[in-house]
Amino acid sequence: MPKGGLARVKNPLPTQDTGLHTNPEQWLQDNHWEPAAEVTVAAIGVGGQQDLGAAVAGGEVRRIRELTMRNDGSNNTVVTLLVSGGATKLTTDVPAKTTRVWSSPDGRSFAAGQVSAVQTSDVTGGSTYVSASGVEE
């Protein structure tokens, strides 16, 4: 072993994607997905629901890997990630006047034809904002 206790790497990781996903960072860049902008989910005093972009294209799967949720109101709110008009994928409590970030390497998956959406309970004295990102393959 060389000085300092670190072994030399004979075969470094490739720097180009060969089509077999040998470069995870390049794969993430090539398949990155996010809606056009942060969405305002709830206006002052009322809950709401907003879609996060269009339906997943045929033959594709969308995995939402990160949500940034900002509660500008004076009371706690519950943010739910769901299939629009369908199953709940994630529920998170967001305290008043805070921002929470949820992330998962695997994400929450949405199949072809499904629309990902976020929903919040009512907010007093402010609004709730959500931005999302992930991959679509």
Task: Quickly describe the structure.
5% of the residues lie in helices and 45% in strands. The chain has 137 residues and is mostly beta strands.
Write a structural description.
By secondary structure, the protein is mainly β. It has one domain: Jelly Rolls, CATH 2.60.120. It has one helix and nine strands; from the N terminus they run H-E-E-E-E-E-E-E-E-E. The strands form two sheets. Strands 1, 2, 4, 7 and 9 form a five-stranded antiparallel beta sheet that branches. Strands 3-8-5-6 form a four-stranded antiparallel beta sheet, with no helix packed on it. Mean pLDDT is 82; it is low at 11-15.
Assigned CATH architecture:
Sandwich
How is the main sheet built?
A: 5 strands, antiparallel
Order of helices and strands: HEEEEEEEEE
Range of strand content: 35-45%
Let me know the number of strands: 9
Helical content class:
under 10%
Q: Nearest-angstrom radius of gyration?
A: 19 Å
User: Class in CATH?
Assistant: Mainly Beta
* Class of secondary structure makeup: mainly beta
**CATH overall fold name:** Jelly Rolls
Average pLDDT: 82
The tally of structural domains comes to: 1
Overall geometry comes to globular
Identify low-pLDDT runs: 11-15
Tally of helical segments: 1
N- to C-terminal distance: 42 Å
